[in-house]
Design brief:
Elements lengths: L12 E4 L9 H6 L7 E7 L11 H10 L4 E7 L7 H7 L3 E5 L6 H10 L3 E6 L17 E5 L15 H13 L5 E5 L7 H7 L3 E4 L1 H4 L4 H19 L1
Parallel strand pairs: 1-8, 2-3, 3-4, 4-5, 5-6, 6-7, 7-8
Helix pairs in contact: 2-3, 6-8
The structure holds 5-O-phosphono-D-xylulose.
Function: Catalyzes the reversible epimerization of D-ribulose 5-phosphate to D-xylulose 5-phosphate.
Family: Belongs to the ribulose-phosphate 3-epimerase family.
Cofactor: Co(2+); Mn(2+); a divalent metal cation; Fe(2+)
């Protein structure tokens, strides 16, 4: 059974995306962060929904064995996500996120995720209107706003998506919702403050952390800036 995620209004969670780590040295790269992160983000790509391939459930299972207490945040960038809920939940992920663009029966898929004991997440591409999310917001624990077109690490942040973050924050404050707002794509120490002030609770960063000269110092600095921005944003 996956853990629930509670975040106080003072906190921002930093989620390094292991896609940017050297796959042959992933454990070493994560351990070098010495705990300067809050969850690990795992990108699953199928070569159809996105033009790239990445990992399968075996990676999540190995990560769960390696880091039994770490929150695992799996982002499915796949067509027919309903076919992959069981395998990723059984592999031990805590959060399982599917794309609004991929699931005609999105409500059912999110209920399947919850029934497997994971936190259901829904993700949205930069070009998709935020209104598409509204019908499922009462049943999700996380909304992942993509700030690049998904498929690759190391792309540039698309600032227009911050409008979606602000809208989601406003809906959350006025509605009976209980979701975290996560952002993913092109996040660095340069823009983490801005995305947190817009309303993000969880920040994914891949290349900014794993390709940095000192991944540990960068993750630590990102956390510091995020926490500071959260104080100002309150
Ligand atoms: O889902 C994706 C890309 O599709 C992301 O999680 C990337 O892995 C983030 O990498 P950076 O943009 O931070 O380098």
């Amino acid at each position: 059974m996956a853990r629930s995620i509670s975040v106080s209004s003072q906190e921002v969670l930093i989620a390094p995306s292991v896609l940017s780590a050297n796959p042959l040295r992933m454990a070493e790269a994560v351990n070098a962060l010495s705990g300067e992160y809050d969850m690990l983000h795992v990108d699953i790509m199928d070569g159809h929904f996105v033009p790239n391939l990445s990992y399968g459930p075996d990676l999540v299972r190995s990560m769960r064995e390696e880091w039994p207490d770490v929150l695992l945040d799996t982002h499915l960038m796949v067509e027919r996500p309903q076919d992959f809920i069981d395998v990723f939940a059984d592999a031990g992920t805590d959060i399982l996120t599917v794309h609004v663009e991929t699931a005609p029966h999105l409500h059912r898929v999110l209920e399947m995720i919850r029934a497997k004991g994971c936190v259901p997440g829904v993700s949205i591409n930069p070009g998709t209107p935020v209104e598409w999310l509204k019908p499922v917001l009462p049943i999700v624990g996380l909304v992942l706003v993509m700030s690049v077109n998904p498929g690759f690490g190391g792309q540039s942040f698309i600032p227009e998506v911050l409008e979606k973050v602000k809208t989601l924050k406003c809906w959350k404050e006025t509605g009976p919702f209980d979701y975290l707002i996560e952002i993913d794509g092109g996040i660095s120490t340069q823009n983490v403050g801005e995305v947190v002030r817009a309303g993000c609770d969880v920040v994914v960063a891949g290349s900014a952390i794993f390709k940095a000269q000192s991944p540990y110092e960068t993750a630590r600095e990102m956390r510091r800036i995020a926490a500071e921005a959260k104080k100002i944003g309150r």
